[in-house]
Amino acid sequence: MSYLKADNLQQFPGIDHGFGTADSVWPESIILVSQRHTNTVFIVGDEPLETIPVADALLTTVPHKLLGIKTADCLPILLYNPVHKVAGAIHAGWRGLANGVILNTLDKLRSFYGAGPELTYVSIGPGICRNCYEVGSEVAGHINEAIPVGDAFRLTSGGKGLLDTRTIAERQLCAAGVPRSNIVHIPLCTRCSPGFYSHRAGSDHRQVSYIALQ
Question: Helix crossing, 165-175 with 101-113: angle to 10°?
């Protein structure tokens, strides 16, 4: 397996993107941030980075800047606004969802670039699935403060809590103004699908996903 492509992003010749697997070779000159499950969005400009910023989302209008996100169960989310030619990448685990990283990124897209979410295309890559992600009820409570969790959290007959971060991410995107028709999923689970690193399966490694303007 190499990099996976999303249909809605692949239709645009002005960008390159890929969702990584365990076999993917990391691109050269990829721009990575120090991910801490924050809602901080880093704007990538022309100037080279002197330090690695703490952030969990990146946006740019500069060509040939490869925005990278590392994951091993969290969701990698890539976005593109073809009108304003803005590319972005988001790292979204449950803490990031609770902290509003998606909502903050779409807000920054509008406030900094004037790019509306209604004309933005988003792809959500592989992450741990709703049948594998066991969490406590307090996790659902934290997320519920940002957006109603509803049926994205359920209790099994054995009393275990299972969380569907993919559904929550989609709901947050739609709440921010992204049309459902502009959102595409690559619904592979990093824990129960072969070919991925998974923190819940005991891996210390990460795969990387990227997007870049050409």
Answer: 30
Tokens found for residue 204: 């210390």
pLDDT at residue number 82: 98
What is the rounded average pLDDT of the residues 146-156?
A: 93
What residues does each domain of the chain span? 7-130+166-213
The pair of structure tokens assigned to 145 is 């403060």
CATH class of 7-130+166-213: alpha beta
pLDDT tens figures, 15-53: 999 999 999 999 989 999 999 999 999 999 999 999 999
How large is the average pLDDT for residues 62-88?
98
Q: What is the CA radius of gyration of the chain?
A: 16
- Detail the DSSP E strand segments found in the chain: 15-18, 30-31, 41-44, 57-60, 66-71, 75-81, 86-92, 121-124, 134-135, 153-155, 161-163, 183-185, 207-213
pTM score, whole prediction: 0.97
Phi-psi region of 85 (alpha: psi -120 to 50; beta: other; left: phi over 0): left
CB atoms within 10 A of CB 114: 11
User: Cα–chain-centroid distance for residue 150?
Assistant: 21
